[in-house]
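Quick one:
INPUT:
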């Protein structure tokens, strides 16, 4: 109970505090674009009593698409995997009415995050002391893009399912792990990296493997792939390709390649040209700097996590989920994708330096406030 109350306190302080930059942005900043395609109001009629900026901003950009899919089905949004909109539709009783769907959409991310934090705290306590577990949660909640955990995005749900997979794997509940991994893969494509991660965890707990283990290994591979296979079949029926969920990323015009791998060193050179071409006072320069800095930060911290002997199965999953987008020719979105690579925050907690802690919070918290302000006013952040 004590741990629960501690985690609940961190969550509530974090969630309530996020309203401050939203309110400040509404008073002090103009919109970043005159074409409000990023807002839910542009697509759907929101009742006046719900049409409040401190509520509607959590749908901005991707949240609009998830809401649209949940309420009227897919049209051309193949890149958005189906679990979140399906969950919204199911919990809102099949879109019984818009108000219920709207409220359910807002509640899912925060609820998923709270449960994820509670599970993560329990998972960390298997290997680390209470102080390290606490610091890991604080580092995660203070990361500059952590506000996406509160938005109608997949970050919270993805984190919850991945942490649940690892916790239940540590307690040897393999069938449930397989089913949760299937849901994880149905949330975002990089969820496929849970498969090698749980296979390694199973090997670690059952070595040397014997013939009797083969059926369990098959289960750990086949069940998680059911979600991806089902969505691929839907892609083929709807858009004529099994991998439309990949190729539709090219429509974003952000330099992302969906058909070939591009080495990060090539992408770094591209960002060098961007940063030396765009004036430094432009928001676009700041976002480009944030993206390449996130790549460097994530790479270094994952290396430190390995050196600090963070559990290998966690690293297998996190390295895959972090590096796969980095091989697409752009670091766009990486500041958000990094959130679910929880070994990074474990590594930070294992670096015993009060100066690092002070520096991290002094940079991260003001930057999170600034990025959230920009996000609410129509600037693409991640």
């Amino acid at each position: 109970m004590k741990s629960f109350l501690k985690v609940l306190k961190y969550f509530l302080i974090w969630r309530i505090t996020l309203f401050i930059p939203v309110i400040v942005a509404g008073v002090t900043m103009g919109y970043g674009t005159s074409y409000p395609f990023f807002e839910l109001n542009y697509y759907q009629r929101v009742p006046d009593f719900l049409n409040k900026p401190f509520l509607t901003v959590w749908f901005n950009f991707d949240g609009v698409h998830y809401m649209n899919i949940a309420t009227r089905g897919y049209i051309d949004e193949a890149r958005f995997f189906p679990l979140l909109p399906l969950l919204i539709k199911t919990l809102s009783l099949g879109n019984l009415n818009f108000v219920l769907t709207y409220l359910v959409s807002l509640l899912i991310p925060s609820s998923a995050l709270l449960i994820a934090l509670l599970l993560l705290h329990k998972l960390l306590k298997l290997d680390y002391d209470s102080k390290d577990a606490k610091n890991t949660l604080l580092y995660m909640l203070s990361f500059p893009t952590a506000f996406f955990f509160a938005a109608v995005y997949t970050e919270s749900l993805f984190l919850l399912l991945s942490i649940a997979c690892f916790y239940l794997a540590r307690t040897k509940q393999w069938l449930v792990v397989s089913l949760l991994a299937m849901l994880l893969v149905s949330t975002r494509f990089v969820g496929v990296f849970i498969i090698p991660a749980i296979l390694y965890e199973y090997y670690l707990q059952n070595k040397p493997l014997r013939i009797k283990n083969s059926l369990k290994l098959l289960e750990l591979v086949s069940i998680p792939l059911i979600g991806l296979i089902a969505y691929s079949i839907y892609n083929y029926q709807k858009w004529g390709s099994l991998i439309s969920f990949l190729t539709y990323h090219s429509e974003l015009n952000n330099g992302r390649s969906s058909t070939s791998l591009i080495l990060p060193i090539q992408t770094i050179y591209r960002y060098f040209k961007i940063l030396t071409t765009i004036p430094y006072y432009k928001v676009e320069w700041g976002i480009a700097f944030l993206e390449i800095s996130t790549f460097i930060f994530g790479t270094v911290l994952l290396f430190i996590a390995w050196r600090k002997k963070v559990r290998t199965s966690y690293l297998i999953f996190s390295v895959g989920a972090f590096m796969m987008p980095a091989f697409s020719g752009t670091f766009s979105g990486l500041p958000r994708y990094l959130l679910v690579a929880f070994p990074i925050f474990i590594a930070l907690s294992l670096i015993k330096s009060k100066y690092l802690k002070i520096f991290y919070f002094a940079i991260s918290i003001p930057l999170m406030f600034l990025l959230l302000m920009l996000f609410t006013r129509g600037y693409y952040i991640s």
